[in-house]
Specification:
About 35% of the residues lie in helices and about 20% in strands. It contains 14 helices and 16 strands. Helix 1 packs across helix 12. The N and C termini lie far apart (about 60 Å). The protein folds into 2 domains: about 140 residues, NAD(P)-binding Rossmann-like Domain (Rossmann fold, 3-Layer(aba) Sandwich), CATH 3.40.50; about 300 residues, Dihydrodipicolinate Reductase, domain 2. It has a 10-stranded mixed β-sheet with strand order 14-13-12-11-7-10-9-8-15-16, sandwiched between helices. Strands 3-2-1-4-5-6 form a 6-stranded parallel β-sheet. By secondary structure, it is an alpha/beta fold. The longest helix is centred in the last third of the chain and has 20 residues. The chain binds NADP nicotinamide-adenine-dinucleotide phosphate. The site of NADP nicotinamide-adenine-dinucleotide phosphate has 19 residues, from helix 1.
Length: about 500
């Protein structure tokens, strides 16, 4: 049997230590890696095999729960790890890398290759060309490319063309780790394995949809990367829009890679083009400012002191098709929010006639379905129930199903799932070239608008709050509200335009 070789470019970086090696280790422990395999880390840092192992032994264990319990397995795993020092931006190292892979696999022209690009995005367009020159783009090879795939529509198209000149589309795996999460996949099961929701899943019954992916951290040590990117490119163009697609897509004819990915692209192609009014009024761009002990974005390492990079985006988007016409999708992402949460909230329409009141004398709110991607993965349905006793007061209650109660395997790590899919040649949960372009096509006008209107508002929000107050106003126009509204109004005087 051919030896499987995984070559990680960017092996000395954050992603490799926090996600890739722990994911590979968990696959190894569950015997989900090919029997014969080698992992070759590549980066410029001058490690040898031995010193790379020392680095791995020190840096990776904090990201593997319960590692101490099975040191034997870990030591076995480490015997598969190797390192090759080279500058991936230069062609010279590649013939030597090819030799090293041959030596490790014992095959003159190994076919079973998986390249993982965990380098800065500036190398995404360089590495494939060098792989081709060195003859490493073999028919059996696959390549996983991290986000962001492109910087805008033009660069994404150019990158797609470049990849198509080196690999076949079925060899290219553009990764979006959100799709590797069990709970993101569960949106499909929830929608298409249950008959009761699908008839309601349209503009007749749904008032609006919220998609939120926020975190309570800043940019940590990644100022250099984040400065030129911002929240729209880092989160909205890929992760958030994927969640919109899972929520809004039509049922695929079959659950095959192409059927599924065709439906994703159809959603992107139905996104209502953003008008000038949308661009100026329905996109709220924010940046966190210092608050208490928390640093502001402009004080982070590697960030320009007058940076106008967005760390928060809230926007309203529409989907022009029969199912969704007139139903706004409000999406938002932000750093330094009060908590870390990713969820989709489907707000159903009010009952046509309000008969009952709550014990507080208000009317019960419309039903709400929360699809929680993380944390506390699960599904919550908000209903009105009669309070026992005299009168006819209604109380809001939650029907709550948490994912960890379902049994089965523990919710696997998204990276492990996706790497395994790639090894097995299943591209379903990876982004196809046309989807990347359709998504950029939709968001490109936003980037253009900001470029042409340098004074377009950028709102400061104190770190640890729910983002600019303007995002609340944007929702209220439609009688809508974020599920986690700005509660920290004592900070009101700290919200300002930057
Ligand atoms: N970290 C995450 O959680 C995360 C999540 C999703 C996506 N990503 C994506 O994954 C990629 C890697 O992210 P990261 O956080 O691991 O970045 P990082 O910590 O900065 O690591 C970058 C890696 O690339 C190597 N490298 C090779 N040539 C380089 C060059 N010319 N300039 C700079 N570095 C070079 C670096 O090692 P040497 O300096 O030794 O060469 C290092 O191993 C990025 O594209 C990022 O967008 C990261």
């Amino acid at each position: 049997m051919n030896t499987f070789a995984m070559i990680i470019f960017g092996a000395s970086g954050d992603l490799t230590k926090r996600k890739l090696l722990p994911a590979l280790y968990s696959l190894f422990c569950e015997s989900r890696l090919p029997q014969q395999f080698v992992i070759v880390g590549v980066a410029r840092t001058a490690y040898t095999d031995a010193s790379y192992l020392e680095y791995v032994e020190k840096e990776v264990p904090p990201f593997i729960p319960n590692l101490q319990a099975d040191k034997v397995r870990w030591n076995q795993f480490c015997t598969h790890l190797h390192y090759f020092s080279m500058d991936p931006s230069q062609p010279e190292g590649y013939p030597l890398l090819a030799q090293r892979i041959s030596q490790l696999t014992g095959e003159e022209a190994p076919e079973n290759l998986l390249f993982y690009l965990a380098t800065p995005p500036s190398l995404y367009g360089v590495v494939p060309l060098h792989l081709r020159e060195a003859g490493l783009n073999r028919a059996g090879a696959r390549i996983i490319v991290e986000k962001p795939f492109g910087y805008d529509l033009q660069s994404a198209r150019a990158l797609n063309e470049l990849y198509a000149s080196v690999f076949e589309e079925h060899q290219i795996y553009r990764i979006d780790h959100f799709l590797g999460k069990e709970t993101a996949q569960n949106i499909l099961a929830f929608r298409f394995a249950n008959g009761i929701f699908e008839p309601l899943w349209n503009r007749n019954y749904i008032h609006y949809v919220e998609v939120t992916a926020v975190e309570n951290l800043g940019i940590e040590q990644r100022g250099g990367y984040y400065e030129g990117v911002g929240a729209l490119r880092d989160m909205v163009q890929n992760h958030l829009i994927q969640l919109v697609a899972l929520t809004a897509m039509e049922p695929p004819a079959r659950f095959t890679a192409d059927s599924f990915r065709n439906e994703v692209v159809k959603v992107y192609e139905s996104l209502a083009p953003l008008t000038q009014e949308d661009l100026s009024e329905h996109i709220v761009r924010g940046q966190y400012t210092a608050s208490g002990v928390k640093r502001g974005y402009r004080q982070e390492k590697g960030v320009h002191p007058e940076s106008r990079t967005d760390t928060y985006i809230a926007m309203k988007i529409g989907i022009d098709n029969w199912r969704w016409n007139g139903v706004p999708f409000y999406i938002r992402t932000g750093k330094q929010m009060p908590t870390k949460v990713t969820e989709i909230v489907v707000h159903f329409r009010e009952t046509p006639h309000r008969m009952f009141q709550t014990t507080e004398g208000s009317y019960p709110q419309a039903n709400k379905l929360i699809l929680r991607i993380q944390p506390n993965e699960g599904i919550v349905l908000k209903l009105g129930m009669k309070v026992p006793g005299p009168g006819f007061n209604v109380k809001e209650v939650m029907m709550d199903v948490t994912y960890d109660k379902l049994g089965g395997l523990p919710a696997g790590d998204a990276y492990a799932r996706l790497i395994e899919d790639c090894i097995l040649g299943d591209p379903t949960l990876f982004t196809r070239s046309d989807a990347v372009e359709a998504s950029w096509k939709f968001f490109d006008p936003v980037l253009q608008y900001w470029k042409e209107h340098v004074d377009a508002p950028l709102y400061g929000y104190p770190a640890g709050t729910w983002g600019p107050l303007e995002s609340e106003a944007m929702m209220r126009e439609h009688g809508a509200d974020w599920t986690n509204p700005c509660k920290n109004l004592t900070h009101t005087d700290q919200y300002c335009e930057l």
